[in-house]
Design brief:
The chain has 281 residues and is mainly alpha-helical. Strand 5 and strand 6 form a beta hairpin. The relative contact order is 0.09. Helix 7 packs across helix 9, helix 10 crosses helix 11 and helix 11 (251-258) packs across helix 12 (262-272). The radius of gyration is 26 Å and the shape is elongated. The protein folds into 3 domains: 7-134, 3-Layer(aba) Sandwich (Rossmann fold); 144-217, Helicase, Ruva Protein, domain 3, CATH 1.10.8; 218-281, Arc Repressor Mutant, subunit A (Orthogonal Bundle), CATH 1.10.10.60. The chain has 12 helices and 9 strands.
C-alpha cells in the first residue's frame, strides 16, 4: 500500500489477534537504516565486533522470539541483505555480527512495501526467491481516496483521540468541513488526515472543526498558495486576503478579525500590493 495507509496498524492487528499476542511485535524500518547499520539492527552484535560496539546487543530477530517481526519498506533492502533475510526467514537461525554462536528464534514475519515487489523482481532489483518466500499471503491496503466511506469514521476517531490528548471538548466536524474532507484526495492518506485533524484542534476556536481550520483549505475564488513559495509572508498574505474578502473589504472589521489596528492592516495591504477585486455586471 501507499505511504500513510496504515500498513503498520494492520500488522499490529494481525499480531494482536493471533496466538503470538502475548509476545512482542518488533518493527524495523528498513528504509531508514544504512546497510551496515541494518545488519547490526536485525541480527545484533557481540562486544568488540566493530568500532563503538562496547557491549553485546540483541538484534530485532532475537527480540521477536515468540512474536512477530514487521519489516517495513522491505523493497529498500540491498541485494546482499536480501540474501541474509532469505536465509534467516527460512531457517529461523542466525549469528550476531562478530559472533560464532548460532541463535534460534521463533518469529512470524510480516513485510510491507509502498512499491510493487513484482515489478522490482522483473527489474532485477528484488530477489525472486525472497519475493516468493514473503508472498505467502498478501493484503493490499487501498489509498484513502479509494475508500472515502472510511474518512468520516477516521476523522471522528482522531477527533476523540486528540480531544483526550489536548484536554479539549470539540464536539464534532461541521457539515462543510466533512464534505471537504470526503472530497479531498489525501495524497498522504490516513497519516495526512490524522495530522489535519490534530492541526484543526490546535488552531480552531469553536466547538466544531470548520473548513477554515483545515490546513489545506483554499476558499472558492482564491488562488492556491504556490507550492514553491511556502514562506511565512506568503501564508500571511493569503490569510489577509481571505479575511478581507470575508468582510467585503471592510477595513475596520477585517482589522478586528485579525487582531491588529487599521494602520497596520493598511500597511500590510500596501506591502503585499493587495487590491479589491472588481465585480462586473
Amino acid at each position: 500500500g501507499e505511504s500513510g495507509t496504515g500498513k503498520e496498524l494492520v500488522a499490529k492487528a494481525i499480531h494482536m489477534n493471533s496466538k503470538r499476542k502475548y509476545f512482542p511485535i518488533v518493527t524495523v524500518n528498513c528504509g531508514a537504516l544504512a546497510e551496515s547499520l541494518l545488519e547490526s539492527e536485525l541480527f545484533g552484535h557481540e562486544k568488540g565486533a566493530f568500532t563503538g560496539a562496547h557491549y553485546r546487543r540483541k538484534g530485532k530477530f532475537e527480540l521477536a522470539d515468540g512474536g512477530t517481526i514487521f519489516l517495513d519498506e522491505i523493497g529498500s533492502v540491498s541485494m546482499k541483505m536480501q540474501v541474509e533475510l532469505l536465509r534467516v526467514i527460512e531457517s529461523k537461525q542466525f549469528m550476531r555480527v562478530g559472533g560464532t554462536e548460532t541463535i534460534h528464534s521463533d518469529f512470524r514475519t510480516i513485510a510491507a512495501t509502498n512499491e510493487s515487489l513484482e515489478d522490482m523482481v522483473k527489474a532485477g532489483r528484488f530477489r525472486e526467491d525472497l519475493y516468493y518466500r514473503l508472498n505467502v499471503f498478501s493484503i493490499v491496503i487501498p489509498p484513502l481516496r479509494e475508500r472515502r466511506e472510511d474518512i468520516s469514521v477516521l476523522a471522528h476517531y482522531f477527533l476523540n483521540k486528540f480531544n483526550s490528548a489536548m484536554n479539549k471538548t470539540v464536539s464534532g466536524v461541521s457539515p462543510e468541513a466533512m464534505e471537504f474532507l470526503t472530497t479531498y484526495d489525501w495524497p498522504g492518506n490516513v497519516r495526512e488526515l490524522e495530522n489535519a485533524i490534530e492541526r484543526a484542534l490546535v488552531v480552531g476556536k469553536s466547538n466544531t472543526i470548520r473548513v477554515e481550520d483545515l490546513p489545506f483549505h483554499v476558499p472558492a475564488g482564491e488562488p492556491a498558495l504556490d507550492s514553491a513559495d511556502q514562506s511565512l509572508a506568503a501564508m500571511e498574505k493569503k490569510h489577509i486576503i481571505r479575511v478581507l474578502e470575508s468582510h467585503r473589504w471592510n477595513i475596520s472589521r477585517s482589522a478586528e478579525a485579525l487582531h491588529i489596528d487599521r494602520v497596520t492592516l493598511y500597511n500590510k495591504i500596501e506591502k503585499y500590493g493587495l487590491k479589491k477585486l472588481k465585480i462586473e455586471n
